[in-house]
Amino acid sequence: MELGKVHLNLKTVLLTMMMFKWGIFCTASSDKCLSAPCHNGATCVDNMDDYACLCAKDGVRFMGKNCDELYDACSFAPCEDCSSTPGETEYHCICPDGLAGDNCTEEVDECESNPCSEPRSLCVDQLNGYFCRCPPGSEDRTAGHT
Ligand SMILES: *[C@@H]1O[C@H](CO)[C@@H](O)[C@H](O)[C@H]1NC(C)=O
């Protein structure tokens, strides 16, 4: 009988431990969202030991752990010089000379307007500018002509 008693005790201890563990788990997970930490219409999602806020996607937008900061589109923009309206998702990159495009990743082709004329008719595009040169096989005969 001595053996059976020990076995029972062990079972009780295990069960108590499990109940204690489940108890902690349930309390911790539901408490995180019960305090309503998410603002501005955000949805709260429970995690094991934390919560996450899914910020509302309509109207004025918010960001941050609790969706309580006005959305700053420029903080996600890939360009350095940026402007945006707080609470809106659009941003506008202010590109340095010679670069263009939404994210200033496109190089401006300064030769597109055909700025070169004879005899230096060949336009060579550069990062922020261009130069005109004579086509291969011809000589620059303007030197000393003007
Ligand atoms: C600009 O960058 C954003 C964010 O990195 C990206 O989602 C978007 O596709 C880019 N736009 C262009 C035109 O490259």
UniProtKB/TrEMBL annotation:
Signal peptide residues on this chain, from the entry's feature table:
1-23
Please name the GO terms of the biological process aspect recorded for this protein, alphabetically: Notch signaling pathway; system development
Q: Name one GO molecular function term.
A: calcium ion binding
Record's SUPFAM superfamilies? EGF/Laminin (SSF57196), Growth factor receptor domain (SSF57184)
Q: Using the record's annotation, list all stretches that form the EGF-like domain.
A: 29-68, 70-105, 107-144
The protein's UniProt keywords, in alphabetical order, are: Disulfide bond, EGF-like domain, Glycoprotein, Repeat, Signal
Which branch of life, at top level?
Eukaryota
Keyword Ligase listed: no
Task: Say yes or no: keyword Zinc-finger present.
Answer: no
Q: Which InterPro entries match?
A: EGF, EGF-like_Ca-bd_dom, EGF-like_CS, EGF-type_Asp/Asn_hydroxyl_site, EGF_Ca-bd_CS, Growth_fac_rcpt_cys_sf
For this chain, the annotated S-S bridges are C95-C104
Coiled-coil regions, chain positions: none
What's this protein's name?
A: EGF-like domain-containing protein
Organism whose genome encodes this protein: Eleginops maclovinus
Q: What is the lineage of its organism?
A: Eukaryota, Metazoa, Chordata, Craniata, Vertebrata
